[in-house]
Amino acid sequence: MGEMAKKIVKTDVEQLIKVLNEAYAEEWLAYYQYWIGAKVAIGLQRSDMVEEFEEHAKEELKHAGWLADRIVQLGGVPLIRPSEWESHAHCKYLPPDNFDVASLLHDNIDAERCAIGRYEGLCDLTHGKDYETYRIAEKILKEELEHEQELEDFVADLEMAKKFLRE
Hints:
Number of domains: 1
Strand content: under 5%
Largest sheet: none
Oligomer: single chain
Number of strands: 0
Radius of gyration: 17 Å
Order of helices and strands: HHHHHH
CATH architecture: Up-down Bundle
Distance between the termini: 62 Å
Number of helices: 6
Shape: elongated
């Protein structure tokens, strides 16, 4: 634990660790959502989606690592039981009802939008109060915004492909 890391934070450190653990749990669930989507995806543009989902899964896992490091630095312990992830996460993992690429894309867009809200809130919570957590949250927010845009672009591409195939 870093004594100065805790000392320079101008907010309730225990509450911050709680929020960071919620985000940590969400990142693990997001990792799994992308990972399993890459395994079960079917349909148009499947190979492109598998590659995209695997890339996003790696990025979500990287986010979990950054959050775990920060939690430890602040004197906390990352959630160590995967069974705790769902109960601590506000952005939930919902098993896919349909393995079609379009359905998986929409599920992941919903998840990214929740993550964007999470990191916007974490930025608001730490702005001017905890520079390191703010920097991490801002970096993750940037990547989550990119994920949403990439997925929305794939949805638009799918719609164009479906239209072309109908004509």
